[in-house]
Here is the input.
Amino acid sequence: MADLNSYIEQLQDFDINEVDWDRIGVWPVPVKIILCIILVIVMFVACHFLIIKDKNIQLESEQNKETTLRRSFETKAFEAANLERYRKQMEEMSVILEALISRLPSSIEVPGLLEDIDDKAVESRLAINGIIPQSEVPTEFYIELPIKINVTGGYHEFGAFVSGIAGMPRIVTLHDFTISGSKGSNSDLLTMDIIAKTYRYKTQEN
Here is the structure.
């Protein structure tokens, strides 16, 4: 108890305005203790901001990485579990693609395709004025070949011709048709201009 009272008296007699920083060793013990406590607090705060705060930032970054990796793992685990189904889907898509490609004529089959279009016109009882291939139009995945067709006949014959083209095994689409009166003596006849487009697969060689 006497030591406590002595410490209190020393603190009361200590004048902060007369502190001699060069003679810290002769300061009263209570002042030294308080100064040590202050230094410990300052060091703790400095450590927190200089070390612990950086570690917290690193920890948060690692936690975010863990979350990302966990999601990636879950996604890959799901894909692995459904791998066999994906393989079957790829096989089915490959078969469908090959079937579609097989319906696209190659360059050497175009004359045969022109003959088929000619036959469809004859079957529909149309007079053929011209079936003329135009310049090829390359696109990213396929090459388009327009064919300009000019035939003469009636509406019903035109309908049968279009239906016949649509039913062909090769892919042929019809575009930009115009129908006008025939210049001949028979006013019942009409003339149709239409563009038929066929396609072939664009290989690496094209």
